[in-house]
Design a protein that fits this description.
Keywords: Coiled coil, DNA-binding, Restriction system. The chain is an alpha+beta fold. It has helices spanning 90-98, 116-120, 129-167, 191-194, 289-296, 299-308, 319-323, 332-370; strands at residues 7-10, 16-19, 33-37, 40-45, 54-58, 66-69, 74-75, 79-84, 123-126, 187-190, 195-197, 211-215, 230-233, 241-244, 250-253, 262-264, 273-275, 278-283, 326-329.
C-alpha cells in the first residue's frame, strides 16, 4: 500500500547509479580528494570525478554499505555512485539506499556483485520533496547522536589504555586509604606464583546424568560471556566440556589467544563448565583477581603470548605456557586500588557501548517506519 501523497516509482528514476572509475595505485597523486571504494574511503587523490554531495555504494566485492560524501570525490570502479538524483533530496536518497536490500540482488557465485540495471528496475516508495527533507533531517539528528557517542566511546577506550599503561607499570601511583601515595617496587612473578591454573575439572567418575551450562570458546569475547550458553548432560556433552569454574575465576582462551577471549566469571556463571580451550585462573590469597584480569589486556602479556603461540591454522598456547607468564605486581592493597580505577573505566566504556547499540537499534527501527510511510512527519 502506497501512503497518501507518496508514489511508487523505479529506483532508477529516483537515483541513477553509475559505475565508478578506474584509478590504479600507480596513477594516484597525493591530495585531499577522497577515493571511495565499495568499502568506503580507502585513500586520497588530487583530482575529483564526482561533485558533492555524493552517495556511493558497493558494486563488486563488498555489498550493502552506503556512504554519504560532503566533498567532491573519486568513486572507484568497485562502486556505484549516484550520477543523477533527479531533483530528489540527496540525503534522503542516501537513507533510502541504506534501507535497501542490495544483497538480494547480488550474484550468488564467486565474488559478490550487483548490476545497476537490476537495481534501477526496483520500485520504491517516494514522498514529496518537503517530506524527503524532513525525514533526512530527523535521521541526520540520530546520526549526529551516534557519531558523538562513538567519539566518546573511542576516547574512553583510549583513556583506559593510557590508565593501564600508567597504573600497571607503576608510572602513576595512587593514594591509599589514608591519602598517602603508594610506594615500593612492583615485583616480578610468574602466573603460577599468584594463581591456581585449571584447579578443578570433571573426571571420569562424573555422574553421566549431571546437567550443566557449558561455556564454549565461541561464548567468550573480550571481557564478555554470552548470556545464551547451551545446556548439556555430561554423557552427551562435548569432550572439551571439563573445566569447573567459580565466581571470581578468570577465563583465558588458550586457542587463538590473540583474539583476547578473556573474561571474568561472575555469579551468574559460577556453576558452569568451561571448555578445555580455556585456562581457568583462580587467584591465590593475596592476589586481586581484577588486577590480574586487567593485566591480561596489557602489552606485557600480549607480547609474551604472541611469542609463545604455536600453529597457524589453529594458533594456541598450553597451560604450562600460561603458568610461566610473567607479571609485575605491587602489594595487594595497591592492586585493589588499581583494579577499582580500571573497573570504573570499564563501566564507563560499557555504558557508552550500550548507549551506542541502543541508538543504532532505535535509528534502524525509525528508518523502517519513516522510509515506508508507516510513520509520517509534520511538514511546516
Amino acid at each position: 500500500m502506497v501512503p497518501k501523497g507518496w508514489s511508487k516509482v523505479r529506483l532508477g528514476s529516483v537515483a541513477e547509479l553509475q559505475r565508478g572509475f578506474d584509478l590504479p595505485s600507480s596513477q594516484r597523486i597525493d591530495g585531499s580528494v577522497p577515493i571511495v571504494s565499495s568499502g568506503g574511503v580507502t585513500g586520497y587523490h588530487s583530482e575529483a570525478k564526482s561533485k558533492a554531495p555524493g552517495v556511493v555504494t558497493g558494486r563488486y566485492g563488498s555489498i550493502g554499505d552506503v556512504f554519504y560524501l560532503e566533498e567532491d570525490y573519486w568513486p572507484l570502479n568497485t562502486s556505484l555512485w549516484v550520477k543523477d538524483f533527479h531533483g530528489n533530496h540527496e540525503k534522503f536518497v542516501y537513507y533510502l539506499l541504506c534501507n535497501f536490500d542490495f544483497k538480494k540482488f547480488s550474484d550468488k557465485t564467486g565474488v559478490p556483485g550487483v548490476n545497476r540495471n537490476d537495481l534501477h528496475a526496483v520500485r520504491v516508495k517516494l514522498p514529496a520533496i518537503p517530506e524527503q527533507k524532513k525525514i533526512a533531517q530527523i535521521l541526520s539528528t540520530w546520526d549526529k547522536a551516534i557519531t558523538t557517542t562513538e567519539q566518546l566511546l573511542a576516547n574512553s577506550q583510549q583513556q583506559k589504555k593510557a590508565l593501564m599503561q600508567q597504573l600497571l607499570t607503576g608510572k602513576k601511583r595512587l593514594l591509599d586509604e589514608n591519602g598517602v601515595r603508594f610506594s615500593g617496587e612492583f615485583k616480578r612473578f610468574h602466573f603460577s606464583d599468584l594463581l591456581n591454573i585449571d584447579q578443578k575439572s570433571l573426571g571420569a567418575k562424573t555422574d553421566p546424568d549431571l546437567k550443566f551450562d557449558y561455556i564454549s570458546l565461541s561464548d567468550v569475547g573480550t571481557g564478555t560471556i554470552s548470556r545464551a550458553i547451551e545446556r548439556h548432560t555430561f554423557k552427551t556433552s562435548p569432550s572439551r566440556a571439563r573445566r569447573i569454574v567459580s565466581s571470581g575465576d578468570i577465563l583465558l582462551a588458550t586457542v587463538r589467544p590473540n583474539l583476547q577471549g578473556f573474561a571474568k566469571v561472575k555469579e551468574q556463571h559460577k556453576h558452569c563448565i568451561a571448555s578445555t580451550g580455556f585456562a581457568v585462573l583462580s587467584p591465590k590469597k593475596g592476589t586481586c583477581n581484577d588486577y590480574i584480569y586487567h593485566y591480561l589486556f596489557g602489552s606485557h602479556i600480549t607480547g609474551q603470548i604472541n611469542a609463545l603461540v604455536v600453529g597457524t591454522n589453529y594458533p594456541a598456547i598450553n597451560s604450562s605456557d600460561v603458568s610461566g607468564l610473567c607479571i609485575y605486581c605491587p602489594n595487594y592493597e595497591e592492586q585493589v586500588q588499581i583494579a577499582k580505577v580500571l573497573n570504573s573505566s570499564d563501566e564507563l566504556v560499557y555504558a557508552l557501548q550500550q548507549k551506542l547499540d541502543a541508538l543504532k537499534q532505535e535509528k534502524k527501527a525509525l528508518m523502517q517506519q519513516l522510509l515506508t510511510g508507516k510513520r509520517r512527519v509534520k511538514i511546516q
